[in-house]
Write a structure and sequence with these properties.
Blueprint: H1 2-66, H2 72-85, E1 87-88, E2 92-93, E3 95-97, E4 103-106
Antiparallel strand pairs: 1-2, 3-4
Helix pairs in contact: 1-2
């Protein structure tokens, strides 16, 4: 009889340990998922805010052009120069291309300025600016 009660106690302890471990894993998975989601939302908000800052720069020069304080080509050049000097996270930058797609300004590769981007592809062959 002593042996049977020891078996039952061991079995119960194993079940408690297994349930505790499963609960820990489940809680960890939920917390990691929430943490990932929060980080992704933070990153999206940061990028949205940076894009709004860049849009504000462009809007400023557009308004100067509209009010006759700068002619349109000069305002466009000034906006491109302002964007070219902007950095975030110390190494990230903005670039501007049009719908054709042609590179109007690339902050770190000025040799791309004015280039047709139609045939620019990533290493997998995806047309970066067309698709």
């Amino acid at each position: 009889m002593h042996n049977a009660s020891t078996m039952t106690l061991r079995r119960r302890l194993c079940w408690v340990a297994a349930i505790t471990l499963c609960s820990f894993i489940a809680v960890s998975a939920v917390l990691l998922s929430h943490f990932h989601s929060t980080m992704l939302d933070d990153r999206k908000n940061k990028i949205r805010n940076l894009a709004e800052v860049a849009q504000g720069v462009v809007s400023h020069y557009e308004e100067l052009s509209r009010n006759g304080k700068m002619d349109t080509p000069a305002a466009q050049q000034a906006a491109l120069l302002a964007l070219k000097s902007m950095r975030y996270d110390s190494k990230e930058y903005f670039w501007v291309n049009d719908q054709s797609p042609k590179m109007l300004m690339h902050a770190t590769k000025p040799e791309l300025d004015g280039k047709d981007l139609t045939n620019s592809k990533d290493p997998n062959g995806k047309a970066l600016f067309v698709e």
